[in-house]
Amino acid sequence: MAPFRNLMLAATVAAFTIASPALAHPKLVSATPAAGSTVSRPTQIALAFSETLMPQMSGLDLVMTGMPGMARHAPMKVAGFKTSVSQDGKTLVAALPKPLPAGTYDAHWHVVSTDTHRIEGHLTFTVR
Q1: 31 burial level (CB within 10 Å; 0-12, 13-18, 19+)
Q2: Which of 9, 23, 48, 115 is the most buried (most CB within 10 A)?
């Protein structure tokens, strides 16, 4: 009976080990603009992930949190941009209709891959 139990245990461990890459959560690999960077008037935001994303369940909110010369600037949500996923399925792209004006921005993203778990994060960058 012990050899059968050991065989079943080995098969179970192997099954989870083999299946785990397919069930991995997406991780942010790179961002343009990069977190903490200062850039000149971007026309898009691109977030590359480690896994293929589900476009209909992934997105991005962009908030201007600071504006030069306005110390008490209230956060303003940026609207009017289109979010899509690249052809390879691993990059979330926000195409802005016009370059962003000078200020500080927070990009709050959420993505879902084939494992169906929603992963969220944010990054801050500055436009000069």
Answers
A1: buried
A2: 48
Task: Report the DSSP beta bridge partners of residue 82.
Answer: 95
CATH of range 24-127; options 1.10.1040.10, 1.20.1250.20, 2.60.40.1220, 3.40.50.720: 2.60.40.1220
Q: 90 has which bridge partners?
A: none
CA dist., res. 78 & res. 45, Å (int): 13
13: which strand partners? Answer: none
Q: Say if CB 95 and CB 44 are below 8 A apart.
A: yes
- Interatomic CA distance for residues 47 and 39, integer angstroms: 16
pTM: predicted TM-score of the whole model, two decimal places:
0.81
